Amino acid sequence: MKRLATASVAALMACMGAASADITIAHVYGKTGPFEAYAKQSHVGLQMGIEYATGGTGEVNGEKIVIIEKDTQLKPDIGKAMLEEAYGDDEVTLAVGPVSSGVALAMLPVAEEYEKILIVEPAVADSITGENWNRYIFRTGRNSSQDAISNAVAIGGEGVTVATLAQDYAFGRDGVAAFKEALEATGATLAHEEYVPTDTTDFTAAAERIFTAMKDIEGEKKLWIIWAGGGNPMGKINAMDPSRFGVEISTGGNILAALKGYRELPGMEGATYYYYEIPDNAVNDWLVKEHMARFDTPPDFFTAGGMAAGIAAVEALKKAGSTETDDLIAAMEGMEWETPKGTMKFRAEDHQALQSMYHFKTVVKDDVDYGVPELVRELTIEDMEIPIRN
Questions:
Q1: Which of 321-355 are b and which e, b meaning 16 or more Cβ less than 10 Å from the residue's Cβ?
Q2: Could you give the 3-state DSSP secondary structure of residue 160?
Q3: Which domain holds residue 164?
Q4: Are residues 61 and 81 in the same domain?
Q5: Does a structural domain hold residue 390?
Q6: How far apart are alpha carbons 242 and 141 in whole angstroms?
Q7: Is residue 56 a contact partner of residue 48, using CB atoms and an 8 Å limit?
Q8: 86 and 206 share a domain?
Q9: Could you tell me if residue 211 is inside a domain?
Q10: Which residue has the higher pLDDT, 193 or 20?
Q11: Does the pLDDT of residue 20 top 80, yes or no?
């Protein structure tokens, strides 16, 4: 089944890659390295988004679409070089990517130098559409503030005390900064921040510092973990029995493989970007049906994001009726389009895609080998006031 699915996608891409093609899109992303699973999902989603938005033709405005791939290897200098190559040598119309926030920050000035659009998907750091932003950057992925506000709403409240554990780079630090700001509005208190290297696998020392900071505090206490990639901090810290200090673990959503660890924490609450059973709309229905038919598995976290980026690119090209950058920017500022998550909208001021997030509670089901994020409440565009940070 998977072999046939791969052949089906390859056939579509071959059609898109015909010699007569006039529109080239570069996917510049970390194909190799610890985020490889995220990258694969993002690429499949991008392909399926273009397929969906073009009705399966791979054409827009009478021109064929070609997708070329560039591997950043999750290294900022390589990501920068790959984007320069895409814009300069390959003369792409626009680019999509990358996976890592650190790589994205290195790539942003390249888009400005070449005056070409970069659709950021799925890198999350606020600074991408904040202090490091330029007019050529659009982001379909959620930002740290959207993650933070939705998670603060899910776990915050009067009398709640929170500690955080995050990776010590842009994704983690931007995420905690935004979470801290959002948490204050709920009446909760942030008591301790803990940052560790991205490749940490032993969380004993970090957990002991967190427990020491929290043990004498009265009332409801939570540890919010913001993490990308391996290491399994949630499982390892849970094995240290934080409940003896009255501390409950919380985290946001993740890919299906990572949700296996959520089975250990039934009832855990947080907020997620996507889970395939939550959104109720025609685009998600198509994605779930087609992904199951082709891959015998449901679409995952970053598949939905890649699809949103692919649809956005096609809709922008349709609306602009042109491949000229200024025409595309004019078309994309304020543009609304349909995605697996429902309607998204590029905010004109910073080109951040406004979108729903989902407050969930983990439910354990006998026939599912991971903790299922069951919807508590959809947090719509109108429910979240996302700061403009540039």
A1: eebebeebbebbeebebbbbbbebebbeebbbbbb
A2: strand
A3: 145-272+357-383
A4: yes
A5: no
A6: 32
A7: no
A8: no
A9: yes
A10: 193
A11: no
